[in-house]
Design a protein that fits this description.
By secondary structure, the protein is an alpha/beta fold. The chain has a domain of about 300 residues: Glycosidases (TIM Barrel, Alpha-Beta Barrel), CATH 3.20.20. The protein is about 25% helix and about 10% strand. It contains 13 helices and 16 strands. The strands form five sheets. The protein has a five-stranded antiparallel β-sheet. Strand 3 and strand 4 form a beta hairpin. Helix 3 packs parallel to helix 4 and helix 9 packs parallel to helix 12. The chain is globular and about 80 Å long. The structure holds 1-O-alpha-D-glucopyranosyl-D-fructose.
């Protein structure tokens, strides 16, 4: 569940005014209780989002801090500092994830310019200062509130941002630098070691709860080794692994990421996890529809072939779901949804659009509400006469859950079959994993336990399937050959 808390919605709900309530647009706490009951009755577990790097500018803490003025104790929960150059320039060179400086200057009650405050994200999202005991205590209460209510897990938003180097020194960002946190090492505002004290604090709280509650951190950091620090035994249970998402559709790069992930997380005893899409990244059907760069993938421009993108996305799903550990699916990928790249600019909601001076459209294209049924928007997502918060393309009539449920070749049917097999096949439950040496750099081939193999052809030529086992599932039709951009799951006789 992305944030459902009361929010002015300056950043899709990641700007929170009360971490212990539900925004009336989404429902009530009683609805949460009903949802948890119903989910648990179905064997589903619910993970909520904990946004602890920042609050909304309308949070009572920040309202009080602004009102109290420079030097007041209320300001100590945030980072208020005097500017440089007689106050006219930001206190340091830190940058915001959404473009521009990470500082905004306050205007005093008489309209006079005053101190600056820090916001790693939008100006409506002031960063809290985790060295303040009132902040620590406040978030302890939030964590307890949701665990008491019965949630099964907590996603830790923007974890690497939560600690800052003492004295807030310059980061050395070049003018106009982008927020490329995976490139940063020894940054004073990202992945600072003190963040681990916060994670240990939360782990100690959750360990006191019955059942098996789990944290998952969101952390885009420099390396798999840095990532592994977030999941040491007394820290978080799991973490998203964005290197997998950011890898291009190339066998060499995917293999490197899989190896680096297993090598880094194994020693700390944390399960690997895999993710292809999220609410912050262009959908992978579209990412894979363009030429694949040798380095890190991303929102590459250039001509797109969505049929190729979908074919690769379906193969990627079988790869993801065959790997050991946890798999995260982002709503809509099971329908093969593409990124909506042509949302009208007046519909855009992401603060990135404004903050980048209308040069970066932002993340709305992966957040368009899902098509459930029917032939016209809103496709059963909401009442027929209501307008969803982002417009759905009329062409999504082809992609509704209703349509795809009835189609044996649909992407939804493929995901359902894969998830069913993933539960049923003993080989997929364990941790075993080994590469089969295929002698071809454009193929990913591995074994999970003796009876199960996965083969993905990322090359240009078809691959013979002779003698490789029985095809249990394939991402596109196969004969005795595995075509380009296709994956198969293979059952093998363990005796052979
Ligand atoms: O994202 C924070 C984050 O660490 C970034 O990688 C983020 O994906 C990137 O800066 C976006 O341009 C989290 C949430 O997932 C995101 O939706 C929120 O906007 C953000 O925190 C602020 O709460």
């Amino acid at each position: 569940m992305t944030p459902w808390y009361p929010s002015p919605m300056a950043d899709g709900g990641y700007d929170i005014t009360d971490h212990r309530d539900v925004d009336p647009r989404f429902g009530t706490l009683a609805d949460v209780d009903a949802l948890l009951d119903e989910a648990h009755g179905l064997g589903l577990r619910v993970v909520v989002d904990l946004v602890a790097n920042h609050t909304s500018e309308e949070h009572p803490w920040f309202v009080a801090a602004l009102a109290a003025g420079p030097g007041a104790a209320e300001r100590g929960r945030y980072f208020f500092r005097d500017g440089r150059a007689e106050g006219s320039r930001p206190p340091n060179d830190w940058i915001s994830a959404f473009g521009g400086p990470a500082w905004t200057r306050v205007t005093g009650p008489g309209g006079e310019p005053e101190q600056w405050y820090l916001h790693t994200f939008a100006p409506e999202q002031p960063d809290v200062d985790w060295s303040d005991p009132r902040v620590q205590q406040g978030y302890d209460d939030v964590v307890r509130f949701w665990l008491d209510r019965g949630v099964d897990g907590i996603r830790v938003d923007a974890a690497p941002a939560m600690a800052k180097a003492p004295g807030l020194p310059d980061a050395g960002h070049a003018p106009g630098a982008r927020f490329d946190s995976h490139l940063w090492q020894d940054s004073p505002h990202w992945d600072v070691d003190e963040v681990h004290a916060i994670l240990r604090r939360w782990r100690a709280i959750s360990d006191g709860y019955p059942g098996d509650r789990a944290f998952v951190t969101e952390a885009v950091v420099h390396s798999a080794e840095r990532l592994s620090r977030y999941v040491r035994p007394d820290e978080m249970h799991t973490t998203f692994n964005f290197d997998f998402l950011h890898a291009p559709w190339r066998a060499d790069r995917l293999r490197q990421v899989i190896d680096a992930t297993l090598a880094a997380l194994g020693p700390v005893g944390a399960p690997p996890t895999w993710v292809l899409s999220s609410h912050d990244d262009p959908r992978h059907v579209t990412r894979y529809s363009r030429e694949q760069p040798a380095g890190r993938g991303g929102a590459v421009s250039g001509p797109a072939d969505l049929a190729v993108g979908l074919r690769r996305a379906r193969a990627a799903a079988l790869l993801l779901l065959a790997l050991p550990g946890g798999a995260y699916l982002y709503q809509g990928e099971e329908l093969g949804l593409p990124e909506v790249e042509d949302l009208p600019v007046e519909a855009l909601q992401d603060p990135t659009w404004e903050r980048s001076g209308h040069t970066v459209r932002g993340r709305d294209g992966c957040r368009v509400p899902l098509p459930w049924s029917g032939d016209a928007p809103p496709f059963g997502f909401t009442a027929p006469d209501a307008r969803p918060w982002l417009p759905q393309p009329p062409g999504w009539a082809e992609l509704t859950v209703e349509r795809q449920s009835a189609d044996p070749d649909s992407t939804l049917t493929l995901y359902r079959a894969a998830l069913r097999l993933r539960r049923e096949l003993p080989a997929l439950a364990g941790e075993q994993f080994s590469w089969d040496d295929d002698g071809d750099g454009s193929v990913l081939a591995f074994t999970r336990g003796a009876g199960f193999g996965c083969l993905v052809n990322l090359g240009q030529r078809p691959l013979s399937l002779a003698g490789r086992g029985v095809v249990l599932l394939s991402s596109s039709p196969v004969t005795d050959e595995l075509p380009t951009d296709t994956a198969v799951w293979l059952g093998r006789d363990p005796a052979t």
